[in-house]
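About this split. The held-out portion is used to measure sequence recovery: a designer receives only the structure tokens and must propose an amino acid at every position. Recovery is the fraction of positions where the proposal matches the reference. Here is one held-out target exactly as it appears in the evaluation file.
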């Protein structure tokens, strides 16, 4: 019997071959990993689904098949050979099945790793894109900030250089000489003021003066100022933008009483108060309209007046009344007694609350109380008649029936307005809010919060709230 050149134990052979195949496959995977950067579809250099180990296995099996010897002719050998062949075929079939299974697992493992690498690569590229996008946004923001900062700095430098170049040749060093009385009119522009300053030789150049005013955002206040000749433009701009240095101009504010305004007019103008007093005693004859009933209260228009330039008390009083009448006509306040009553209601509303959002409600309370024949009960009217502030009222003042402005006792509107109402209060008196309120209390003096109610019981509650919120409440 001839010996077969095949190994006696095919199981050992195929086990060794499987190990060699696995090692070769791992080496292929190593090279595939290097090639995947250039091959994003997971195709290696041997083609889709092919490998070096597969080709090597096929060649080895062919070699074994070609080197096997013929089977012996005697029956015993034939039987033995047949048995061995059967065993070999069975073992070979089993080993082939295991090898195919191993190949399939390796292929599946490769596909899984390829998919994982592709996902990781995609995620990495997406992350890099997001980082690049964020970096671009940050760079754009920084660039914008730098541009704006550079623009502002360049503008400031240009302004400074421009002023220095102008001032070096077109400005006096100051401080000046002599004394000049210079007036700035209400609403006058910096260009107009600069022209007059240059003409009177107070500044050397209008251009330098207006440049300083513009670049420093200075506000030039109306008034009369004591200046000098040959002053530096910046010194003049500093003086004209300081309201405390302005003289000769009277400022009338909404909510003021006429008696206080007239006293200031006398002081600023230098006209003796007796001249103004004579006009008051004459009940404004020739100055006031008939519906004013001889009282200037409520009939002086808020604003700024150059009383220093006016030569008499009559001119000063006439200027304020004429501006008031023109304003009332412009906003459509009815004439005659209606106009006077609107001024009364507006003056009370403005005196009672310090927030214009409540003017319309206070006006409605006044009208509701008059409709119900109730006394107004406004402490501000009593204080006006007593010549004091509302916070200075005493119990005896509140009970004084001889005060015609005591609206706790006397029903209806007071004899005259109690202050100089502004346009917001006048508009609210003309168009009061709708409501049935009869009482109101400013419950918080710090914030000005005011509450409006319909009944006396509700009034007592908000009055208690006022006392809780304000320790010095009366």
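Reference sequence for scoring:
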């Amino acid at each position: 019997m001839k010996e077969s050149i095949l190994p006696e134990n095919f199981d050992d052979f195929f086990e060794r071959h499987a190990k060699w195949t696995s090692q070769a496959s791992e080496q292929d995977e190593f090279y595939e990993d290097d090639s995947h950067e250039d091959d994003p579809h997971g195709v290696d250099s041997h083609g889709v689904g092919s490998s070096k180990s597969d080709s090597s296995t096929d060649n080895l099996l062919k070699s074994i098949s070609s080197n096997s010897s013929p089977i012996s002719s005697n029956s015993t050998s034939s039987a033995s050979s047949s048995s061995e062949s059967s065993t070999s075929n069975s073992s070979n079939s089993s080993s082939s099945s295991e090898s195919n299974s191993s190949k399939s697992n390796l292929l599946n493992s490769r596909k899984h790793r390829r998919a994982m690498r592709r996902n990781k690569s995609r995620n990495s590229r997406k992350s890099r894109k997001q980082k690049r996008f964020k970096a671009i946004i940050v760079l754009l923001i920084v660039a914008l900030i730098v541009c704006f900062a550079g623009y502002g700095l360049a503008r400031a430098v240009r302004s400074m250089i421009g002023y220095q170049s102008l001032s070096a040749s077109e400005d006096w060093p100051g401080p000046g000489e002599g004394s000049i009385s210079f007036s700035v009119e209400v609403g006058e522009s910096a260009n107009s003021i600069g022209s007059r300053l240059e003409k009177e030789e107070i500044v050397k150049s209008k251009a330098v003066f207006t440049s300083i005013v513009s670049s420093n955002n200075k506000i030039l206040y109306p008034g009369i100022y004591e200046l000098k000749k040959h002053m530096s433009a910046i010194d003049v701009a500093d003086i004209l933008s300081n309201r405390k240095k302005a003289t000769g101009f009277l400022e009338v504010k909404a909510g003021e009483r006429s008696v206080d305004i007239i006293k200031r007019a006398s002081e600023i103008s230098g006209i003796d108060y007796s001249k103004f007093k004579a006009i008051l005693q004459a009940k404004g004859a020739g100055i006031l309209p008939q519906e004013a009933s001889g009282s200037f209260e409520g009939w002086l228009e808020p604003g700024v007046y150059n009383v220093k330039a006016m030569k008499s008390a009559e001119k000063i009083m006439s200027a304020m009344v004429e501006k008031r009448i023109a304003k009332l006509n412009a906003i459509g306040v009815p004439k005659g007694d209606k106009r006077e009553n609107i001024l009364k209601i507006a003056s009370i509303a403005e005196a009672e609350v310090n927030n214009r959002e409540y003017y319309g409600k206070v006006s409605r309370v006044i009208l509701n109380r008059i409709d119900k024949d109730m006394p107004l009960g406004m402490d501000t009217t009593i204080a006006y008649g007593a010549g004091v502030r509302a916070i200075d009222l005493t119990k005896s003042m509140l009970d004084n029936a001889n005060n015609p402005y005591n609206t706790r006792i006397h029903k209806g509107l007071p004899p005259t307005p109690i202050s100089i109402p502004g346009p917001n209060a006048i508009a609210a008196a003309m168009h009061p809010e709708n409501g049935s309120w009869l009482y109101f209390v400013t419950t918080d003096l710090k914030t000005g919060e005011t509450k409006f109610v319909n009944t006396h019981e509700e009034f007592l509650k908000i009055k208690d709230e006022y006392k809780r919120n304000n320790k010095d409440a009366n």
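Annotator remark: The chain has four domains: 10-128, 177-245, 250-330, 347-437.
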